[in-house]
Write a structure and sequence with these properties.
Blueprint: H1 2-25, H2 31-36, H3 43-54, H4 58-70, H5 76-90, H6 93-99, H7 104-111, H8 114-146, H9 151-167, H10 170-201, H11 210-213, H12 223-238, H13 241-247, H14 253-284, H15 296-302, H16 306-339, H17 345-365, H18 369-392, H19 394-397, H20 401-420, H21 429-443, H22 448-454
Length: 455
């Protein structure tokens, strides 16, 4: 009976979101409306949609699982993400909006040349497929706890919902539904779940080991793993395709900066809330194995009763939906704008369908949500972030297109190889990838003679 009430609340909520998506899609009048919401977003909707995008599967299910298993140092994932947004607001946000372009890959072409743009577009799409897979897995973890059906069928159903939901109306539909989801996320996670679960478990906090409560490092997560977590999430929040698509939708540069900063602050609030929920889960649902730990968060929430758990789990489904639609629309935009060099809505929609289905296949292959998280963020961080940062400051860094191209290829490919080699010598793939990525940027800089000839 409890699960039936919870499921009913979730169905009503999802039906409401689809209705809002259909209505808001009617605001699309041209290609700018579909891809970047007509560059019309003010500070409140922009803050809501950025926050709803960045608080995804990594910030909730994956972080909760890592805190449950390893303790508070796992929070460096979320700290890195929040700090990345704040750094973005103080540095690149204004420059991104000023380009008046449509995608991160198009910005890469603006900073360097078409060859670098093409390689960046392919690498971005590949990593976004992994991000979508992460979100499919995260949503499935939540729903599997509620639904008496096989995990495989849940994965397939969630993929169909993600694709259909994103196809509704492009960026306008994404933004308007993100605003609703942002409100539900704040209420469900920060106002209800975190304090209620903490109050319920507080009398038994002594049952949590001191090692789990140790911070910034502990016996489970030492300096190198923590450093990897930090950079793996810091860099994609300074340079991120889904975040940049939001900044390009802002009505002006000032709005882009302020909204990004506010999103960074809100990201910290969500991080604290997820930590409290994960610690409470150690007490309320103890003894889960490594494979079962992904279910710690929804299992703990179900202890609050059918109505509250329905509202709160709706908030967590919102987390996944709000990130998935943003990543899918970003990937579809890059396919149309950067691969086919056409701002064509039909091409973008075909891409959304294909990328969603490929992500489903990846979700079947990588059945560990933390492993999927590490794959997605490692390749993107190592391959794309440093060349783009260097490119924005090319007057100072003297970076060349050839250096950027080599950095993209070497950083992304070597980090991927290192990842599948299971991180030899205990050094994480993201650290190796960043070191390799920076070398061409430094070694292939413009010489003084070349700088003189271009001035």
């Amino acid at each position: 009976m409890q699960n039936e009430i919870t499921i009913s609340l979730l169905i009503i909520y999802l039906a409401g979101l689809v209705t809002v998506g259909v209505i808001s899609s009617k605001k699309i009048k041209d290609k700018e409306g579909f891809f970047i919401a007509g560059r019309s977003l003010g500070i409140l909707p922009l803050t809501a949609t950025i926050t709803a995008t960045v608080v995804g599967g990594s910030a909730t299910i994956a972080t909760a699982k890592l805190v449950y298993l390893n303790g508070l140092p796992a929070l460096w994932l979320d700290i890195g993400s929040a700090l990345g947004l704040i750094i973005l607001s103080l540095t690149l946000a204004k420059m991104v909006r000023k380009t008046r372009l449509f995608s991160l890959a198009e910005i890469v072409g603006h900073l360097f040349n078409q060859k670098v743009r093409n390689v960046a577009a392919v690498l971005i799409i590949l990593t976004q497929i992994a991000w979508i897979s992460l979100l499919i897995q995260g949503t499935s973890v939540i729903l599997t706890v509620l639904l008496p059906i096989d995990y495989t069928y849940v994965l397939i159903s969630i993929t169909i919902i993600f694709i259909f939901y994103t196809l509704l109306g492009g960026q306008f539909a994404v933004v308007y539904t993100d605003i609703i989801q942002f409100i539900v996320m704040i209420v469900g996670i920060c106002i209800l779940a975190a304090p209620l679960l903490f109050i319920k478990s507080a009398p038994f906090v002594g049952n949590i080991s001191t090692n789990h409560l140790s911070f910034p490092i502990n016996q489970n997560l030492g300096f190198l793993p923590v450093l990897s977590f930090f950079f793996m999430m810091l860099m994609p929040n300074i340079v991120g395709p889904d975040i940049y698509s939001k900044l390009l939708s802002a009505k002006d540069e000032k709005t882009a900066r302020y909204a990004t900063f506010l999103s960074g602050i809100l990201r910290i609030i969500f991080a604290i809330s997820i930590a409290l929920i994960a610690l409470s889960a150690i007490i309320l649902v103890p003894g889960l194995s490594q494979a079962e730990a992904a279910f710690a968060l929804p299992k703990a929430i179900l202890t609050l009763g059918p109505v509250l758990s329905g509202i709160i789990l709706a908030a967590f489904v919102s987390v996944m939906l709000s990130s998935a639609d943003s990543v899918l629309i970003s990937a579809g935009t890059i396919l149309s704008v950067d691969i086919f060099k056409k701002k064509n809505i039909k091409i973008s929609r075909i891409g959304i369908i294909c990328f969603g289905l490929i992500a489903l296949v990846l979700a079947f292959y990588f059945n560990d949500i933390v492993q999927t998280l590490q794959l997605a963020y490692t390749v993107f961080t190592a391959g794309l972030t440093l060349p783009i940062i260097f490119g924005f400051y090319k007057q100072k860094t003297k970076v060349t297109s050839s250096g950027a191209l080599l950095s993209l290829i070497l950083g992304g490919s070597i980090s991927l190889i290192w990842f599948f080699m299971k991180n030899p010598y205990g050094i994480d793939a993201v650290i190796i990838g960043l070191i390799i990525s920076i070398l061409p940027l430094i070694l292939l800089r413009k010489s003084q003679n070349e700088r003189a000839n271009t001035t």
